[in-house]
């Protein structure tokens, strides 16, 4: 139901209207005949408070005015006007079904109504009690939004109805009084690649012109899906706000002989002018819709990836602490206290010394100079060390500028949950090259590392079952969120799915691996990550990953010119990103390096481990050709034949498939496979990305508006990437995604614990004002001030969304849509499960 609407006063053909088309705060509201201008367009936005909405005027671009009860007065007859957003009770509205019409009740307890029974242009809009007739409104979509509707004839208060609740193919249609049953509910589904829709009855079949006949007077019934023109309908908005439903055959949906009685049959006719061919789409107000935001991309167990020596700190007492990361512990151990879980990071990140026998200068240099480059608490020595002190003071980390310290401690996840988080995709992640060059411990291979993380995530969620639970199906997700908990979805984001890069797998091998992962609870899959694998090519966007590609496959990326002008990134032919760092580290005195090599004195450069790493990071002469490839660069590899079969198998299993990190060629082919699945295609995910444009070009790691539109038409979902983003930048990115996806709600993709920074705060916030009535996050002796530090840990995502909501220019609308993303995720998953049976074998 959230979306853009004209709000019609039911007692007369008049609409909620901003007087005089005046955008100023305080302008009163009236009813007026429909003119279709922006002063009659309203955007309904889910509020963070369950059951309430903000209603924003669309009167001017960039003008942020909301439906508001003047002075927050509860007295009957109080004028209603537009006002700057403040999020108070005077701007919160419940939208309730009242025997076929809607009533709008403010949080103050009064109702939106007209001032008198005159029903003429210019009558003022005020608040009052629920007075019959004067509080009845309807919503008419400005733009058709995929969803479920009642379809009302323009002739009378009758609705499109499947005869006698029939579900058999060929059951005729009629008009009937509104009863609200499944035979009167219709799902509008975009046709992939076309400006038309399938219209599916909740009885299970589709609106269809009998025999595909173009002759006027042909009966319309429900029929099994076939995707033909007899089942494709254009939705044409008429000047009076109604719509005409035009079959792809050229005829219109019509009430036979313009009769208005119950039981009148429905057929086709020529032209849209007659009232019998006018219909209203009434969005179904569902009290069962989920409320809360969805994060499509997190890594709570990443401390167990990358050789278990990259991310420091574990997410709770009971989590596995890797060997050599807590006072040089000789073996993996379970955290028994928060001091052990979040203690100092010297063992993990520091250099070798007599006080730190498990330290590693090479690892410290690679982490500090290659990955954690922006951390503000560095000490400035040659290996780039940083301050290590941990709990209870936590003076240095977690921090918004550091990506190698734990940011998902369990109570920080709980704080995000308290701020509305209701769906969280938890992904196992790994990179074998990083695990090798930082001298990590087993398991370093993707399959075993992912297995360990999945097992530990299941145990972690079990320890916090008071507020979270793993969802293994869309029905699970609905139950969990409806019960007031956080639904966690398990997924894998690894380079070498099934370790297949070292073998020659068959489809049966891939199918067995997918079944194995499914049996472990995995429902969300990245077929491709940052390196090419047996399924297809990866997106090229960072030179560092070319070393990983060579390490995993034996060769650097194969590059081609981009056909899309918004792809401007060029890969380097000789970017040895670690050379100056390793040159410096090689001279650090290191007594254990006294080996067989000739050295004037023991230094790291004499250590055989250093020499092996140095060899791994040498530039490859095969990349010299990159300089001769014109334009922006993309990976020349798309999906392999095995990859195409694997993607189809994932669809047949009803898995959620994420396109992020695919090369553009792999991505487009995956979309083509999804579009071929009937009816309406298979939904796909893009969990942590953004839209590139001519003004803000990028690499194939982001997506074009055209690709996003195709995913939107499939019923897919995007998580807007929020790495190191400001609230103003996030609003811009979110709105761009919302528009490109055809008005589909997006979630967020934080990439928390995934080597990406969490969002920044708006500069120069007043902490006293920001935290008035809003508590700060505290752990041990540490209290975080988001206004000064930004999103230092995952719990401060609540603060970030508060910052976004308070931004002028649509911040509240973005947060309102974000709080609909738990429902959007559930619907996308349900669609995947429904389409699974139609996927290719």
TrEMBL record:
SMART domains cross-referenced by the UniProt entry: RICIN (SM00458)
An example GO biological process term is: proteolysis
SUPFAM superfamilies named among the record's database cross-references: Metallo-dependent hydrolases (SSF51556), Ricin B-like lectins (SSF50370)
Signal peptide stretch: none
Q: Which domain of life is it from?
A: Bacteria
- Organism source for this protein? Sorangium cellulosum
Name of the protein in question? Ricin B lectin domain-containing protein
Residue ranges of every copy of the Ricin B lectin domain listed in the record: 3-140, 147-282
Q: Which GO terms describe its molecular function?
A: metallodipeptidase activity
């Amino acid at each position: 139901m959230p979306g853009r609407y004209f709000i019609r006063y039911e007692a007369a053909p008049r609409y909620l209207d901003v007087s005089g088309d005046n955008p100023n705060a305080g302008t009163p509201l009236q009813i007026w005949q429909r003119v279709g201008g922006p002063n009659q367009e309203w955007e309904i936005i889910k509020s963070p408070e369950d059951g309430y909405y903000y209603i924003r005027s669309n009167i001017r671009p960039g003008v942020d005015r909301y439906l508001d009860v003047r002075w927050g007065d509860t007295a009957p007859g109080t004028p209603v006007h537009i006002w700057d957003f403040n999020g108070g009770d005077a701007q919160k509205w419940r939208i309730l079904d009242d025997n076929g019409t809607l009533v709008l009740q403010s949080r103050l307890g009064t109702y939106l109504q007209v001032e008198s029974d005159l029903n003429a242009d210019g009558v003022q809009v005020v608040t009052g009690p629920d007075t019959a007739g004067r509080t009845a409104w309807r919503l008419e979509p400005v733009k058709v939004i995929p969803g479920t509707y009642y379809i009302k004839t323009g002739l009378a208060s009758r609705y499109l109805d499947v005869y006698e609740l029939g579900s058999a193919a060929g059951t005729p249609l009629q008009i009937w009084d509104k009863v609200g049953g499944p035979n009167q509910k219709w799902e509008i589904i975009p046709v992939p690649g076309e400006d038309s829709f399938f219209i599916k009855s909740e009885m299970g079949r589709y609106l269809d012109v009998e025999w595909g006949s173009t002759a006027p007077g042909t009966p319309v019934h429900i029929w099994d899906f076939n995707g033909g023109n007899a089942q494709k309908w254009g939705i044409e908005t008429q000047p009076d706000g109604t719509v005409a439903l035009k079959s792809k055959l050229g005829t219109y949906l019509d009430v036979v002989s313009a009769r208005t009685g119950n039981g009148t049959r429905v057929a086709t006719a020529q032209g849209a002018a007659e009232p019998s061919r006018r219909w209203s789409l009434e969005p179904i107000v569902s009290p069962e819709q989920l409320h809360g935001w969805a994060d499509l991309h997190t890594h709570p167990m990443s401390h167990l990836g990358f050789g278990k020596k990259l991310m420091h700190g574990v997410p709770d007492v009971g989590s596995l602490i890797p060997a050599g990361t807590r006072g040089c512990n000789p073996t993996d151990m379970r955290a028994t206290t928060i001091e052990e879980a979040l203690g100092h990071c010297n063992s993990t990140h520091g250099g070798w010394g007599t006080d730190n026998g498990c330290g590693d200068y090479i690892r410290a240099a690679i982490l500090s100079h290659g990955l954690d480059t922006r951390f503000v608490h560095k000490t400035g020595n040659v290996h780039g060390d940083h301050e290590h002190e941990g709990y209870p003071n936590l003076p240095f980390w977690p921090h918004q500028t550091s990506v190698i310290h734990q940011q998902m401690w369990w109570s920080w996840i709980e704080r995000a949950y308290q701020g509305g988080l209701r769906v969280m995709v938890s992904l196992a992640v790994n990179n074998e090259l990083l695990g090798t060059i930082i001298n990590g411990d087993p398991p370093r291979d993707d399959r075993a590392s992912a297995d360990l993380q999945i097992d530990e995530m299941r145990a972690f969620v079990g320890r916090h079952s008071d507020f979270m639970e793993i969802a293994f199906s869309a029905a699970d997700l609905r139950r969990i969120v409806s019960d007031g908990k956080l639904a966690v979805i398990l997924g894998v984001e690894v380079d070498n799915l099934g370790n297949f890069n070292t073998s020659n797998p068959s489809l049966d091998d891939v199918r067995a691996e997918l079944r194995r992962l499914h049996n472990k609870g995995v429902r969300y899959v990245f077929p491709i990550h940052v390196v090419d694998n047996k399924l297809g090519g990866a997106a090229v966007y960072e030179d560092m990953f070319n070393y990983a590609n060579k390490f995993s496959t034996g060769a650097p990326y194969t590059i081609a010119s981009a056909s899309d002008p918004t792809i401007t990134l060029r890969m380097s032919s000789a970017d040895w990103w670690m050379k100056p760092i390793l040159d410096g580290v090689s001279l650090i005195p290191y007594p254990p390096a006294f080996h067989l090599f000739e050295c004037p004195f023991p230094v790291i450069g004499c250590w055989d481990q250093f020499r092996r790493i140095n060899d791994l990071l040498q530039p490859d002469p095969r990349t010299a050709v990159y300089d001769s490839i014109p334009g922006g660069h993309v990976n020349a590899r798309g999906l392999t034949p095995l990859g195409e079969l694997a993607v189809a198998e994932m669809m047949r299993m009803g898995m959620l498939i994420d396109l992020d990190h695919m090369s553009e060629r792999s991505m487009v082919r995956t979309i083509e496979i999804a579009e071929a699945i009937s009816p309406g295609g298979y939904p796909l995910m893009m969990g942590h990305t953004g839209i590139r444009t001519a003004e803000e070009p990028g690499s194939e790691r982001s997506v074009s508006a055209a690709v996003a539109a195709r995913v939107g038409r499939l019923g897919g979902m995007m998580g807007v990437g929020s790495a190191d983003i400001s609230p103003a930048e996030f609003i811009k990115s979110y709105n761009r995604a919302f528009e490109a996806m055809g008005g589909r709600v997006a979630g967020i993709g934080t990439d928390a614990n995934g080597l990406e920074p969490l969002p920044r705060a708006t500069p120069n916030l007043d902490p006293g004002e920001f935290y008035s009535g809003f508590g700060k996050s505290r752990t041990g002796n540490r209290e975080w001030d988001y206004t000064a530090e930004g999103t230092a840990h995952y719990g401060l995502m609540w603060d970030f969304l508060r910052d976004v909501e308070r931004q002028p220019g649509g911040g509240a609308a973005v947060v309102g849509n974000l709080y609909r993303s738990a429902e959007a995720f559930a619907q996308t998953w349900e669609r995947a499960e429904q389409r699974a049976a139609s996927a290719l074998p």
